[in-house]
């Protein structure tokens, strides 16, 4: 339950900042805080007693509904043209929130991985929200990054403190909602692309895990050692180095997202080539070992 420090740090900062940010005193923000408290309590109960996956999923649906009906929704995307979701807005928003919550929970397999990747993603979201002038979302992302940075020194390998589900579920929830408020609202044309890059590592790892389990005929909620961090460890890379490699991947993807937000095509091209080269190097190294 070490993640309770992340929760307390975030909520305490929110209480301090609220009087100074007008947008953080409206029903939308209150709904976000209510959902944050509920998801944190769900994680705490799971850490102490152990909850069935269906119970945790039900609570994730509850917090998603609170967020949606307080006014935070993915209403539309514009890729390649304007598409309004209308009646599908609520289920799409719910799918996004639940998906990111579980994505962060699934990458919490190595010391410092979930906290580090979440802080990098939060910083990227913060930067893009500052570029677009979305102050509330930038503040939320900054608070999350700060909470993670305070936790990481005790959580990096060899860890003294483990976040547990209270931390992993909370991180996923805040990343999901802040990305809706900040990216889907600010970058209509490229929202999907930018958000996908900002949260690339947990999204890709979870997507491949689901596909792998379906193809193999295994229950999608059953844990396995097919995640990227497990594959790095099984390839002979040390715990700490595997985490640093995944930090680097997450950072590069975040920089690509920022470059897209700035519409700097040259930077996007350079970073994309860099990612391809790094992936090829890892593939060749794995083959030789």
Provide key terms for this protein.
two-stranded antiparallel ribbon; 2 strands
Q: Strand order within the widest sheet?
A: 1-2
Number of strands: 2
Strand content: under 5%
- How far apart the termini lie comes to 38 Å
Low-confidence stretches: none
Rg on CA atoms, Å? 18 Å
Whole-number mean pLDDT: 81
Report the helical percentage: over 70%
Structural class: mainly alpha
- Indicate the overall shape: globular
Helical segment tally? 12
Estimate nothing, just give the exact number of structural domains.
1
Verbal overview:
With 289 residues, the protein is an all-alpha fold. It has one domain (4-288). The chain has 12 helices and 2 strands. The protein has a two-stranded antiparallel sheet with strand order 1-2. The longest helix has 24 residues, at 265-288. It starts with a helix and ends with a helix. The model has no long low-confidence stretch (mean pLDDT 81).
Q: How does the SSE layout of this entry go?
A:
Layout: H1 4-17, H2 27-49, H3 53-69, E1 76-78, E2 82-84, H4 89-106, H5 113-132, H6 135-155, H7 164-186, H8 191-198, H9 200-215, H10 228-234, H11 239-261, H12 265-288
Antiparallel strand pairs: 1-2
